[in-house]
Amino acid sequence: MILFTFKRFLQLIPVFFGATLLVYFLVFATPGDPIAALSGGKPMSPAVESALRAQYNLDQPFWVQYFLYLKNLVTFDLGQTFSGQPVADVIARAMPVTARLAVMALAIEAFFGIIFGVIAGLKKGKLFDSTVLVASLIVIAVPTFVLGFVLQFIVGVKLDWAKPTVGSTAPWGDLILPATVLGLVSLAYVLRLTRTSIIENKQADYVRTATAKGLSRRRVVMVHILRNSLIPVVTFLGADLGTLMGGAIVTEGIFNVPGIGNLVYQAVLKGETPTVVAVVSVLVVVFVIANLVVDLLYAWLDPRIRLV
Amino acid sequence: MSELLKKPTMFDSAQDDLPLLEIRDLAITFTTPEGPVNAVRKAHLTVMPGETVAIVGESGSGKSTTALSAIGLLPGNGKVTAGQIIFDGEDITHADEKRIIELRGSSIGMVPQDPMSNLNPVWKIGFQVQETLKANGLAGSNSKERVAQVLSDAGLPDAAKRAGQYPHEFSGGMRQRALIAIGLACRPRLLIADEPTSALDVTVQQQILDHLDTMTSELGTAVLLITHDLGLAAERAEKIVVMYKGQVVESGPALEILRNPVHPYTQRLVAAAPSLASKRLQSQRTEVAEEINAVVKAEHEITDDDVLQIKDLTKVFKIRKGLGRSEDFTAVDNVSLSVKRGTTTAIVGESGSGKSTVAQMVLSLLEPTSGSVIFDGQEMSNRSEKDLFKFRRRVQPIFQDPYGSLDPMYSIYRTIEEPLRIHGIGNAKSRQTRVKELLEHVSMPSSTMHRFPNELSGGQRQRIAIARALALNPEVIICDEAVSALDVLVQAQILNLLNKLQEELNLTYLFITHDLAVVRQIADDVCVMQHGRVVEYATTDEVFNNPQSEYTKNLLRSIPGATLRL
User: Rounded to whole angstroms, how far apart are CA atoms B438 and B453?
Assistant: First the structure.
């Protein structure tokens, strides 16, 4: 297993280079001149403009730009934003906020998704099952930004249960509402996945054998149905953590959360290549690690899986 | 041997002896989207303490449903609608869940059918035994030793170490021993054994049933044995209950039922049971075959040519051991045999003997590592694509699972017509005539051609698979376990059909099977394989009457019902 983990970390190297190259190229190929965006469309003296181009290596061909970027990266220099701040600092400020948001969203979707899914699966065809099935369909069908604004208005403004927007320090309490919105769609998927998995395992031969042993119904469910049913759910949750980290752009926008999503959105608008590439690279690493954790968990849950 | 193991019967003991389990006029109904299905109607049976009673019937006869209703294990949509289940004087027909849970494990144990799916794959064997003891208040402080004891009682070697392993690290036989250990862990008074060995090789089946006999007679446990094999039932049980379409059609002492079956269904069952009847069928078949051979030879002046020859055939697989290392595994080791035109050669062996690998190499679906397959005088290896295409026309397979080998999206017509179309034979009209003719050959009405596989029964599907194999007028048919997924009566029908077709079309069969009883009904020559090698190769009569190798003798002894004197 240690060997497996080590091998997976080695895989990070090509994934990292591939991802940075791809993102660097995409931003490079995006129409629009970053320097013009920087000046806000105002005219700029040619001398200043060429000085700025030289400063950000924008006067160099693509490959040179990319390798200069990589050279700096090796020395942990992620470059600077157009406003002169080190990119590393900007990420260091935004990252914990988004991480907090994503972890909360994941906790919410895992907790409620699994509990509701298990109950619905065990009581298939009953009122509770039909209700949550319809509710989950609605959640999946309504776009996140509609859901976000509606909840923000009802919970944050009308009922005044939570702050409608998040402050600059983004404390845990402020994040409950945005985290719920962020996790809600995945919650619906987790619920449906758990439900299907429970229904399938409920009919397994080994469950009947466990019942025949004289085990209590509670033990049959907890020991023989639940663990087997959670195997696909865990896989989904792990992969979803990556999605939540990167996919928080809309939610962070609605609730004004100073996280990675906001940061990368602004950077893309400005054509600020160093920031975009750095953020995406960090997300790639997060995604790969999340998948590694999923694989380890998977092997722990299912002894038939051998890690090689 | 089984006579020794048999428990003292309770038949002739005092009249006031209370039965342990009594099922009276039981009716069970399943609610399905298509309406209620009466799975069991008026079933009645009695099990005395310490007695073994077998319920015999084909799939769908309601035998498992009847037995499982005794411990409340009917599937969610099943319900007891009439009758009574009385266990040890207590009416448990509608007992509440708490009472049923009390009875399960400690009073009524169960050994299920399929050892592959009945152990939870994510928990260690020891854990799954231990929780049985715990649930019934038998764990105690030295539960680890107790678990090892229970497992080793069930015949699992090195039990203490094995308890720490997962089910996927066990063979089928070992898993079934673990399931027997679980079923008997709490010394129940009644054990429901639902086809406990039908998924296992015959020699393993024999060992496990012997062991089960010993254990239950030591513990004084009564056994309700569910099986489709009449020979096995007669050998293991004192009483037999025959079920057909949800009803008990006959019951009584085992040997009496075998000798004087009263109900027509039982009579057919006794006549068809391969383990009992094979000898009779064989002699009849040989006579017919000899006559036919004589006629065919006279008509066509064919000399005994070997249509198929296998010479020193070897297949080595590489097994990955991780990190680029691999180990050689010889699945087929120097196998040679030859099949005469118009005859049947059976390759017999248990799982892992390499018999199916031989079949795949003969079909050119797998490249041999060394050795050769010679078909009609021509070497098979290094053939061009074109030659291979021609070869496929002359050699056709029939596989084990008729559910899996027919495309569910293809109509029966399209299934049978496809090989004709691929090989560019005839036009649409002549192909339709040919399909009709083929359906007639396999005794199916021509209206079948518009139907789909899911509308047919297992036996009908296998007939379609045979019709498809015959479409191209092949000379050789490779039957890979072609009848082992079928019920006894259907199996007998298909074997008769194959015999009939062989006579009519002068077909040559290479018959791969694990079932020696089937071999006796169909084969002229037998090749017994073990661990990839041929251990015995002779005519069927020689193999059955005068087996040479120890392994063959052991296989023959393991046929259920082999020791019965009728």
Answer: 16
